[in-house]
Amino acid sequence: MLKNVLADKAIHSITKFTTLDYPHHLASIFWFSKCNMACPYCYNPQIVRDNGTISLETALEFLQSRQGRLDSVVLSGGECTLYPHLEPFCEAIKVLGYKIKIDTNGSHPELLTRLIAKKLVDYIALDYKAPLDQYETLTHYRHIERFEESLKLLIQSDISFEVRTTLHSDLLTPMDINTIIEDLHVKGYRGTYYLQNYLHVEPTLGETKMQQNQFDLSQLSPLIPIELRNF
């Protein structure tokens, strides 16, 4: 199947090297174009709105040229699971000997199920955008049950994964974050919950401004371990 789609320009851009995006690994990042959510703080509006510019063939050639220097690749976006040929693409990456991390909003649990079953992904970062009763308001995405299905799948699997939330203090309060923490606890999440502080860039997808409200970290629930990023 991959031979038929190698010319597809699904990737918007490539970050050639990172030590931050895949814990304990030297990785590159493939930024897939398009997303089915519209989070106002998204710092990749051009990736969400624009078409891809890099073919799968070019991406695989890049990985071939980095064998021995990188050990992994992060598939991000946008939302990489929107791409209909992600599964054979992951198979081709695995042939080259790379580990694969996927950043996802969890809207395609069926694909995640197949990737995990076939051992085509090594690590998943799942974005928990907002309390469930605020999810649609923040993301403009209606099918919250698909995110919940992905979360349940990851908790019940043996895949290495993390749950993370981008925190903009004008959009989410300590009570909101505690609602997320309680939901994770009830669902049986036993990993670390990552709170990622919003770092202002321009433009953002929703023209989000710098944070004005103070966020009191001392109010956060101790039900599950929390690690802060960019604070």
TrEMBL record:
Needed cofactors: [4Fe-4S] cluster
Radical SAM core domain: residues covered: 19-231
UniProt cross-references to CDD domains, sorted A to Z: Radical_SAM (cd01335)
Keyword DNA-binding: no
Keyword Iron-sulfur tagged: yes
Gene Ontology molecular functions: iron-sulfur cluster binding; lyase activity; metal ion binding
NCBIfam families according to UniProt: NrdG2
Name the record gives this protein: 7-carboxy-7-deazaguanine synthase
UniProt entry keywords in alphabetical sequence: Iron, Iron-sulfur, Lyase, Metal-binding, S-adenosyl-L-methionine
Native species: Sulfurospirillum diekertiae
EC id: 4.3.99.3
Stretches that traverse the bilayer: none
Alphabetized SUPFAM superfamilies for the sequence: Radical SAM enzymes
Top-level class of the enzyme under EC nomenclature: lyase
Top-level taxonomy: Bacteria, Pseudomonadati, Campylobacterota, Epsilonproteobacteria, Campylobacterales
InterPro entries: Aldolase_TIM, NrdG2, Radical_SAM_PqqE_MftC-like, rSAM, rSAM_sf
Stretches of the chain forming a coiled coil according to its record: none
